[in-house]
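Input for the complex:
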Amino acid sequence: MFESAELGHRTSKAAYDEEVPRLREALLDAQSDVGAAASFPVLAIISGVEGAGKGETAQRLNEWMDPRHIRTHGFPAPSGEEAERPPMYRFWRALPPRGRIGIFFGSWYTMPILERAFNRIDDADLDRAVNEIRHLERMLYNEGMLMVKFWYHLSKETERQRLRELEKGPRTRWRVTKRDWALFKRYDKLREVSEHVLRETSTLEAPWIVVDASDRRYRELTTGRVLLAAMRRRLDEPETAPTVTAAPIVPQQDNVALLRSLDVDRSLERKAYEEQLEKYQGRLGLLVRSKAFRRRSLVLVFEGTDAGGKGGAIRRVAGALDPRSYRIVPVAAPTDEERAQPYLWRFWRHAPGHGEIVIFDRSWYGRVLAERVEGLASEADWMRAYEEINEFEEQWLRNGAILCKFWLQIGRDEQLRRVGRREQTRFKRLEIDQGDGRNRKKWAAYERAVADMVDRTSTEIAPWTLVEGNDKQFARVKVLRAVCRALRNAF
Amino acid sequence: MFESAELGHRTSKAAYDEEVPRLREALLDAQSDVGAAASFPVLAIISGVEGAGKGETAQRLNEWMDPRHIRTHGFPAPSGEEAERPPMYRFWRALPPRGRIGIFFGSWYTMPILERAFNRIDDADLDRAVNEIRHLERMLYNEGMLMVKFWYHLSKETERQRLRELEKGPRTRWRVTKRDWALFKRYDKLREVSEHVLRETSTLEAPWIVVDASDRRYRELTTGRVLLAAMRRRLDEPETAPTVTAAPIVPQQDNVALLRSLDVDRSLERKAYEEQLEKYQGRLGLLVRSKAFRRRSLVLVFEGTDAGGKGGAIRRVAGALDPRSYRIVPVAAPTDEERAQPYLWRFWRHAPGHGEIVIFDRSWYGRVLAERVEGLASEADWMRAYEEINEFEEQWLRNGAILCKFWLQIGRDEQLRRVGRREQTRFKRLEIDQGDGRNRKKWAAYERAVADMVDRTSTEIAPWTLVEGNDKQFARVKVLRAVCRALRNAF
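Predicted:
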C-alpha cells in the first residue's frame, strides 16, 4: 500500500509556483460553492506518520481557502466530558455542518492504530474498531458527507531524517517531542498496523489517498488537488450523491402477529398498582444512587402508539428520581443546527456522562417509524437506519450505558377513546402533539413498521420491552419494573 | 429578612389536598401557554439552607407540571471544560430557551455565599460577585427572561432538627452528608452573608421570595403559587415586558472627530511589509506556544467598515498559528437555537478553554453597530448593550483571556473602489456578504455608532485598536503587532 509513496515524488519550485495561484483560486471557488449550496459537509482527514507535515499542510489549506469557514481539529487528550462518553462522541461533536469544511488530524484512526502497535489491544479489538469505523464512514457517506482521507507516508529512513532536521532548526525544534521518537521506534509495527487498517477502511465511500509526504511541495499540491477534485465533482454532479439500493423487506405477516398477539388489556387493580408503584419507584431511586451506578448511565427510550401513555409512564419514572440527575429529551422537529448534521447527531449530543440519566420521549427510531410511514425518509434511508441504530446503541452500551427501550401499545378503540378525551380535557392538552391524528389513520402501516423495527433492533444487548398499554396502571408498573431489572442485571 | 420566615407557617393536609389539584391544573396550563408562546424562558432559582427541601420541591414541580419541558440543574463540581472557563459559563450553558422552564439549584449564588462564609474571599470580593450577579440578572430580565428566586429558610433550631430527622430515616439517611453538618456549624455566618446577598440582589427585575421551609406542604404550595402567579401575570400582561428607558445619547461631534482624525492612508512599502509580516507572524507563533499561554486564552475581535479588510487581517493572524489551536467564528444570522436565548449566549458558547484562540469575525458589537443603525434593536436594547458588553468582557478577562479588539477603518472612496473590484473579481467572492452595500449608504450613521462604541467600550482593560485600513499591508502589520504586544504585556 505504501510502496508507490516511497518512490520519491517531487515537485519543483517553478511548477509549484505556477500551479498554486490557479489551485488556490479554484479551491476558493469550490469552497464558496460548497458554502452557497450548504447541501453537504466536507471532511478532510489528515493522518499518517509523525513528522510528515500534517500540521503544515493543514495550515496551507487554511491559507489557500477562507479559514473562517474551515474548522481544524487536533484531538489531543479528551476532556473530562468527552472521556466519560463513548470514544466517538468527540468526533461527532466536531463534525462540520453542511456547507462547511472540517479538517481532522488523525481522527478515529489514531487510537486504534496506536493501541494495536503498542500491544494495548489485540487483533480482535482492532477488528472491532475497524468495523466501527467502517460503519461510521458508510453512515456519514449516506448522510451526504464528502469525505477525503489522506495518509501522509514517509519511509523509515526519510522519517528519521525529517525528525533530525526538525530538531536542528531553532524554529522547528519545538515540533519534535519525545513521543515522536517513541513512535519512530515502533515504525515497523506502526507501518504494519496502519497498512492493515488502511486496507480495511479503503472503501468505496471513503477511499484513502496515500501521499508521499517527503517533498513539501508535492504533498501540498497533491492534497489541494485531490480535495479540489472531490469537491468539484460532488458540486458538478449532484447525481453522484449516494444512493443505496436496498433489498426490499419481504412482507412478513408473522412479525406483525407478534404485536397483535400482545394482550393489550392486561390490567392492574388500583390497590396493587399503588403498592407496586411505590415499591418500584423506591427501588429505582435506590438503584441509581448506588455506588455501582456512578460510572454507568441510564438511557430510556419511549416509543409507542399515539396516546399510548408515554408521557404518563415517563412521569412515573421521573417521579422516582432526583430531577437533577435526569434529562428528558422530547424529540420534536430538529433545530436548524441539527438539520445541518447527520441524522444521529441530535441524539449523540445528549449522550449521558457518568451517573446521568437521559429519557428520550420519542427517539432515533423516528426514522423507521413516522419517517418511514409518512414518507419523510426514502426507503434507502430508513432501511440503512436499522443497522446504524444497532451500531449506535452498541457504542453507548459498550461505554457503560444501560439502555431500556419501550414500545407502548394500545388497542385501536382505546386510542380513539383517549384521543377523544384529550381533545376535551384541557388538563391533558400538553400531550396532543403534531403526530397525533395524522398517524391514527395509518394503523396498519405503523403496525408493519413497528414489527420490522422490533425484528431488526431488538438485540440481546438492547431488547425492546413491549408494553401492553390499555390499562395505564399496568403499563407504568411494567415499565418501572423493567428499568429496575435492567439496572440490577447490569450491576 | 428572614424573620417572617421563622413564624412557623403551616398548611394543613386538608387545605393542601384541596388546593393541589387546582394548582396543578393551573400550572400545567401556564406551562403549556409558555411553551406555545415560546416568547420567553422561565427560570426558577431554588436556593436556601441545607435540609430545607430544595430537592423535594423541585421534584414536586416536575411532578405537577410536564417534566419533559423542564430541565433541572444541580451544578455539582464543574467539569474540566467548565472549570477552564469563566464561572458564569456553566450557567449560561444551562439557561432554558424561550418557551421552556429551567430550575437551578443554588445557581450563581452558591459559590459567593459559601466562599464568604468560609472566609475564602473577603467583603470586597463578595461585593464584586454580587455586582456581577446583579448585572447578569438585569440583563436576563431585559432579554425577556421570567426569573423567580426562592430562598428556603429554616431557623437554626429547625435546621438541626431536620438534619437529625433525615439521618434517622433509613430512606432519607443518604441525603445528609458531612458537608451538611459542616455547613450547619457555620449557620450564623451563613445566615449573615446570605441576608446581605439577598438584600443586595432583591431587585425590581428579580426579587427574592423567602419561604418558610419548615413545613413541606406550606413550602410546596407557596412555591407553586408564586411560580404560577409569575407565569400567569407575564402571559396575561405581555405589556409588562421590560422596557428600559434610556437617557438619550447626546450627539457628540467630538467623538466622531476621533474616527475622522485617523489617517487612513498610512501605508507600508512592500519590502517593509514582507519583513514585518514575517517578523510578527513568527513572534506570534512563539508567544502562543510559550508556557505562559497554556493557562491563558486569546480572543480577537474584528469589526470594521465593510470591505475594511477584516478577512485579510484574520488570514494573516491565522497564518501564524497552528490551525488546531484556533477557531474562527464568523458571526452571521443567529441559528434558531441561538435566537431562543439571550443575545450574548451565542458568544458565550465559544468561550475559549486554556491555551485556545478564538477569532471573532464580527462580534457582540453587532448590537451597537449594525443592529443599532439598521434599527434591528430598539434604542433601549442597544443602549444597555454597552454596559452588558463591558461586564461580559470583564468576566472573560478575569478568567485569563487576553482580548484584542480591532476596528478597521477605511475611507469612503477606498470602500467604493474595493466593493466595485470585488463584484468583478470572482477570487474575492467569499467576502461579499449581506452586510455590504446596505450599509455603505449609511456612512454617517455608522460613524456615530462606531464613535459611541469606542467611547463606551474602550476600557483600560479592553481597549480598541483603531486600524488605518486604506493600505492593507499597513493594517495587517498593525494588527499583528498589537496582538503580539497584548500577549507580551499579559505574560
